[in-house]
Write a structure and sequence with these properties.
single chain, about 350 residues, alpha/beta, Spore Coat Polysaccharide Biosynthesis Protein SpsA, Chain A, UDP N-Acetylglucosamine Acyltransferase, domain 1, seven-stranded mixed β-sheet, six-stranded parallel β-sheet, 30 strands, elongated
Length: about 350
């Protein structure tokens, strides 16, 4: 094992774990993989590829399932982020480490692994430069009760994991950032098939004192839920991303915008239509959606090709699935999710009695 202070070879490969079903983002993920949902107009996975390119990564394996494989094939063929992209297709659920073990013979001696559901916009050079068999990237959090805490001892060696300790009694506030620097030796002794980093690989490395950690500082962008997805847009449009700088706080290039935009940001995709008198306020309107006259879309997500009837109100992190039809006068609030292709008749969902 390389000793502390040595200069390991640059890392040129990475594996991006994107096989999850994205159920917390349904109905948006009914026809689009979560990693390809647009964040300020850029596929979420491309943020990670751009970040990897900054530290010299040239080749990335996307671990994906067979569901919506055509979308991943189109994405990979576009050479996003200027990186060569390969698909590593899972025919069965392989957990978190299994997809990496499956492509181990195609990887260099050292490589990076990133979870596909968050972007930590941090300087990854300390992770890339860390010697040893395996290194975790960590971030500090204010509240530890929702995370597994990683306790690190002398020399950056991980001592133990503690699941969701109360903040007042937590021995540390560092948690797994979902970014790892690994060597082939960290996985070579495990058989191919389902394999967990959290339950098998990392505890074994801790027992052998072979798991190190470095703390990363930066913006944490998560699109795991509709609320987080909207908040991530707010962060990017406020200048919180070094990986993508939108041209304007309210983007609607290629959209037909007769209504108005309000709030600090909005993203209205090409081919969307916003009729006169409609308002889009800190909301996402995807490609081909139609927003009727007098409609209010505030803090919500409208899926591709959905139709929102005149005078409707969609707010409160509500999500309308692709191709759904929301009748005039309907009111959607409190995080309600409308299935793709569903139809709500005029006035069928309201929170206010008739005048």
């Amino acid at each position: 094992m390389p000793q502390s202070g040595s200069n390991p070879e640059p890392i040129r490969q990475a594996v991006l774990l994107l096989g999850g079903r994205g159920t917390r983002m349904w109905p948006l993920t009914a026809h689009t993989p979560k990693g390809l949902l647009p964040l300020a107009g850029v596929p979420f996975a491309e943020y990670q590829l751009r970040q990897l390119a900054r530290v010299g990564v040239e080749e990335v394996f996307l671990a994906v399932g067979r569901a919506m494989l055509d979308a991943w094939e189109r994405f990979a063929a576009s050479s996003p982020g200027g990186i060569t992209v390969h698909l590593a297709i899972e025919d069965q659920t392989l957990d978190t480490a299994g997809p990496v073990r499956a492509v181990l013979d195609r990887l260099d001696e050292r490589f990076l692994v990133l979870n596909g559901d968050v972007v930590i916009e941090a300087d990854l050079r300390p992770l890339v430069a860390s010697p040893g068999v395996a290194t975790l990237g960590l971030v500090e959090v204010a509240d530890t009760s929702a995370y597994g805490v990683v306790v690190v001892g002398d020399g950056g060696v991980v001592e133990r994991f503690i699941e969701k300790p109360p903040t007042e009694s937590a021995p540390a506030r560092t948690v797994n950032a979902g970014m790892y620097s690994l060597t082939r030796d960290s996985l070579a002794d495990h058989p191919e098939g389902p394999l967990s980093f959290e339950r098998v690989v990392f505890p074994g490395l801790v027992a052998a004192s072979q798991l190190h950690a470095v703390v990363l500082s930066g913006q944490w962008i998560d699109i795991g839920t509709p609320d987080l997805y909207l908040a991530a847009h707010g962060a990017v449009y406020a200048g919180g991303s070094a990986l993508h700088r939108p041209a304007a706080a309210h983007e609607n290039a290629g959209a037909l915008l007769a209504g108005r935009v309000e709030g600090d940001w909005s993203w209205i995709a090409p081919r969307a239509r916003v009729e006169e008198g409609a308002v889009v306020d800190e909301a996402v309107v995807m490609s081909g959606a139609a927003i009727g006259e007098g409609t209010v879309i505030r803090g919500a997500v409208i899926g591709a090709e959905a139709v929102i009837g005149a005078g409707a109100v969609v707010t409160g992190a509500a999500v309308v699935g692709g191709g759904a039809w929301i009748g005039p006068g309907c009111e959607l609030d409190h995080g309600v999710r409308i299935a793709p292709g569903a139809r709500l008749e005029a006035g069928s969902v309201t929170f206010r009695p008739p005048q």
